[in-house]
Amino acid sequence: MVYDRASGLNIPVFYVLSTSRSADAYWDMMHFVRQAIYQQLSPAEVVWDFEVALVEVVQTQFRGAIVLGCLFHLKQALRRVMKRYAIPDAECTIAMTRGVIDILTVANPDQVKSHGVAWAQIEIKQRCEKQRTAYSNAKW
Questions:
Q1: What is the largest CA-CA distance in the chain?
Q2: What is the pTM assigned to this prediction?
């Protein structure tokens, strides 16, 4: 995406469709994008969708760029994990409510594991109790 100063909007420049999620495929995609624009890309920030292979390629090809995760994709990934652990829909909805699990994105990264996750668990439990929804203690 490129920021258009006139409109104040970020405009998509490339769309890449792929059936592969391998590091090699991502490497090729980035390489072809760089070739297509005939100039060196030096992004200040790169937003990604939490694909581990993609972030490694971005960090290698765009050294110095800040790699940011997309909140939509983070919540989508968290929802999939909650489903995998068979957490009931009502609990998932509470966890996904604004200001609950997404608060971890603004916490100090060094404290997410030690304090942030515990806070989110307590918040989910309290909201479940308030809404008279069962809390899956063993699953959190």
A1: 59
A2: 0.65
